[in-house]
Design brief:
124 residues, alpha+beta
């Protein structure tokens, strides 16, 4: 079984990489990480989804500049995204949301302008 992750990215550029079980109760995970009651998904590409609070702007949540930077690499920005964002892989053929690899999470952080050092391989 391969490892799968999601990137939780906050407006202040803090983040977490969490384990992602694409066949479990993924909506509960999203609601918990985003801290909201109404979730929207934006398909950044067929392989990348952006999940966020559908009412973030109405709740005066901060604009998520790091998430906008990632989105802007695929299309012109047409609206602002507010509050915590969660990035996952796109849907698989059965409609389940795939996870990301750690390398993909790292690449997304670089696109967001967040410098994260790579962890060296363990020495034996």
């Amino acid at each position: 079984m391969s490892e799968a992750f999601a990137l939780v990215l906050r407006p202040d550029a803090s983040f977490d990489v969490i384990e992602w079980n694409s066949t479990g109760d993924t909506l509960s995970t999203l609601y918990r990480e985003i801290c909201c009651l109404s979730i929207a998904v934006v398909d950044v590409s067929p392989e990348l989804s952006l999940w966020l609070d559908d009412e973030g702007m109405l709740k005066n949540r901060a604009v998520n500049i790091p998430a906008l930077r990632i989105y802007a690499t695929s299309a012109p920005i047409h609206q602002s995204y507010h509050g915590t964002a969660v990035f996952t892989g796109g849907p698989d053929t059965e409609g389940d949301t795939k996870g990301l690899t750690l390398d993909q999470c790292h690449a997304l952080l670089k696109l967001a302008g967040i410098d994260v050092p790579t962890v060296p391989d363990p020495r034996n």
